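Quick review question:
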């Protein structure tokens, strides 16, 4: 019986090891494949259709520190003239949780024109947000790899600008979660499903107020 148990444990150990190698291998591949598309905020060339700011949660009705840094970096790029439009994409699936209007109001308070801000109310995931836009991505370094990988596989011409402006509590947790998320989206882009909600096409060159609710 002991030999049988040892054999079963050995097989389980091999399966776990193979699974870990696959998960970590995909993670490394995703990061390496888009690493050159991540640029420093001071080394951007050209102009872009829009700046996409991906949601990162609220705290007491205000942007979380991670989201605040994304919005501040987006504002800097907007002011420097790299793009005349900003897309804020986040979760507004419930009436009492409105990430996108908080994001827009934060930018309005900084002086961005209302008609230059487009709100994506159905940015329930990174994949959903990317599927719906062509842009510069504004997010932290650990999140950029997955965002840009999705964009590349969806045929979008995008670069990534890191909005890491401080050390974040829980950064190790963020990175570990991203490893699994990269694996998930690696598989997802093979099939390219439509996002949870797609909706009508809204030209980003128009008036962002059409996305107000």
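Suggested answer, residue by residue:
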């Amino acid at each position: 019986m002991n030999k049988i148990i040892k054999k079963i444990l050995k097989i389980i150990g091999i399966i776990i090891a193979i699974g870990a190698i696959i998960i970590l291998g995909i993670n490394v591949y995703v990061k390496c494949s888009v690493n050159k598309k991540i640029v420093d905020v001071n080394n951007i060339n050209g102009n872009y259709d829009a700046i996409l700011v991906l949601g990162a949660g609220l705290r007491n009705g205000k942007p979380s520190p991670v989201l605040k840094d994304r919005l501040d970096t987006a504002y800097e790029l907007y002011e420097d003239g790299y793009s005349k439009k900003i897309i804020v994409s986040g979760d507004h699936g419930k009436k009492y949780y409105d990430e996108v209007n908080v994001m827009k109001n934060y930018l309005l308070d900084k002086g961005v024109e209302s008609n230059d801000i487009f709100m994506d109310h159905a940015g329930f995931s990174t994949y959903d947000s990317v599927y719906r836009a062509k842009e510069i991505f504004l997010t932290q370094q650990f999140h950029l790899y997955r965002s840009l990988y999705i964009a590349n596989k969806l045929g979008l011409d995008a670069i990534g600008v890191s909005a890491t402006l401080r050390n974040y509590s829980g950064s190790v947790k963020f990175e570990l979660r991203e490893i699994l998320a990269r694996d998930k989206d690696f598989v997802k882009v093979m099939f390219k499903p439509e996002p949870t909600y797609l909706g009508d096409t809204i030209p980003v060159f128009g008036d962002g107020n059409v996305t107000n609710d």
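Why it works: The helical segments are 2-34, 65-79, 99-110, 126-131, 141-153, 171-191. The mean pLDDT is 91.
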